[in-house]
Amino acid sequence: MAEQFSWLSLDVDEEVVWSGRPRLHVVLWLAVPALSIPALIVVVWPRLLSALVGVSAWAAVTALGYVYVTNIDYVVSTKYVYSKRGVLGRAVTQIGLHNIQDTTLSQGIFGTYSDYGTVSFSTAGGEGAALAFSLVDDPSTVKSAVDRQISSVRKGTTDGRERSKAGGVDDLLSELRATREAAQRIDQSLEHGGSRS
């Protein structure tokens, strides 16, 4: 799934769990009010040319809104949450799951009815949300996916520390044995080499 995000560089042991973007209906929030542009131009300058200019301005505002919304990506991986925004430039925000202290879901009246909302992520010591996935479809599923990954990371971190300590001791013992065997071989070769001369 990471292949579809040229801006995303995952770690070797990281994989995408969820990805999405804001609902496209956000463009309608720009397009409907922008309809007032041709109406105002026709009222002020009532000619065919003014109608064409007004419709062109409305189409430009709508197209820019579409381009803006379709250039926002949200990704949840097994290690991080990512948000990418930008049309001409690119701004990527990344927060480690281990740093997230709180996830919140907010939906307005229309969001509850149409099943879209905003999922926000807060970190320790931060004022407000550090990152938010705005106007995503089925936000409760997104929040659940993130909460599951946070639990998994926290559980894995504790287990991983215990495993790494045990694994570290085993590795150290193996190296010490190998070092002792190498030292014994050197001693033996010096003894045999010393007795020949």
Describe this structure in words.
There is one protein chain. By secondary structure, the protein is α+β, with helices and mostly antiparallel strands. It has helices at 25-34, 36-44, 48-70, 109-114, 139-196; strands at residues 16-20, 73-77, 80-85, 91-96, 100-106, 116-123, 131-137. It has five helices and seven strands, in the order E-H-H-H-E-E-E-E-H-E-E-H. It has a four-stranded antiparallel beta sheet with strand order 1-2-3-4, with helices on one face. A three-stranded antiparallel beta sheet has the order 5-6-7. A hairpin with a 7-residue loop joins strand 6 and strand 7. Helix 1 packs antiparallel against helix 3 and helix 2 (36-44) runs antiparallel to helix 3 (48-70).
Give the % helix.
Answer: 40-55%
**Total strand count, please?**
7
Q: What do the pLDDT scores average to?
A: 81
- Tell me, briefly, the overall form: elongated
Order of helix and strand elements from N to C terminus: EHHHEEEEHEEH
Q: How are the strands ordered across the major sheet?
A: 1-2-3-4
Secondary structure layout:
Blueprint: E1 16-20, H1 25-34, H2 36-44, H3 48-70, E2 73-77, E3 80-85, E4 91-96, E5 100-106, H4 109-114, E6 116-123, E7 131-137, H5 139-196
Antiparallel strand pairs: 1-2, 2-3, 3-4, 5-6, 6-7
Helix pairs in contact: 1-3, 2-3
